[in-house]
Amino acid sequence: MGESKLAGQFFDAAIGLLKEVRDGDSGEIAAAGAAIAEAVANGNRLFAFGAGHSSLAAQDVVYRAGGLALMNLLVVPGVVGVDVMPATLGSALERVDGLAGAVLDSSPAKAGDVLIIISLSGRNALPVEMAMNARALGLTVIGVTSVAYATETKSRHVSGTYLKDHCDIVLDSRIAVGDAELTHEGIEAPFAPASTVVTSALMQATMAAAAEDLVRRGIEPPLLRSGNVDGGHEWNGRVMTEYGDRIFYRH
Questions:
Q1: Which residues, including other chains, have CB under 8 Å from residue 243's CB and lie 6 or more apart?
Q2: 64, 66, 119, 180: which could join 190 in a potential S-S bond, CB 3.0 to 4.6 Å?
Q3: What is the pTM of this model?
């Protein structure tokens, strides 16, 4: 079989976006890494949150081989993925006022911790309120979003603001409104979203920056190893024991 022209075009689009965020967000990535390293060094905790498909990039840095053991998923029931039935309920819950506050109030997050909030559009009530409430509690908020949505769409939050307006650091994914990189004759809708590729890369780049900053401080980054390599389970057991008071995805 021959090569797919459209498949190649998607790779080209994704590579182009990755280069854009590498060069355009380098300062913000370094700042986000430093904020995470600061929290680790000071005994604080790390959380990541995303709703719908934005949750994929949040989950990608939690309990992950090669990742920071201290990164915890802040779970909002019903919006973590497409497993909720019906799947459309997750989208509806993103627009519910007050949900973010209730989740934060019942979570272990407190002043000095870091919360990464991932929302492609940054326009729904849930991520906006999550950022507002987290900052009010004294958390450092890192937003991962497409800033373009703030100029090309209307906010769905009563304040008229977006996620980017309530963050200490903003990582711009530079994804175009609509999140579809390709069009083709004979296909009515645009297709091939790249937000997951780009946002996950931003998250992993930030974790790498955090590890680099920790080493600079003379601190061994609390990383997990793969359980599929010899010695991995033993290594992870030691890390989880040492940092057990800051890891909330295990009992």
A1: 69, 70, 222
A2: 180
A3: 0.95
Q: Which of 245, 21, 53, 249 is nearest to 147 (CA)?
A: 21
185 by DSSP, 3-state: which?
coil
- What is the residue-wise DSSP string for 200-216? HHHHHHHHHHHHHHHHH
Q: Which residues of 214-233 are buried (b: 16+ CB within 10 A; e: fewer)?
A: beeeeeebbbbbeeeeeeee
What single-letter DSSP state applies at residue 67?
Answer: S
Q: Residue 174 has what pLDDT?
A: 97
Which pLDDT belongs to residue 41? 98
pLDDT digits over 24-77, tens only?
999 999 999 999 999 999 999 999 999 989 999 999 999 999 999 999 999 988
Which residues in the chain show pLDDT less than 50? none
> Which token pair is 6?
């459209």
Q: Is the dihedral of CA 66, 76, 112, 163 positive or negative?
A: positive
- Our CA dihedral for 207, 208, 211, 217, rounded to 10 degrees, sits at -110
How many Cβ atoms sit within 10 Å of the Cβ of residue 12?
11
Single-letter code of the amino acid located at 75: V
Beta bridge partner(s), residue 148: none
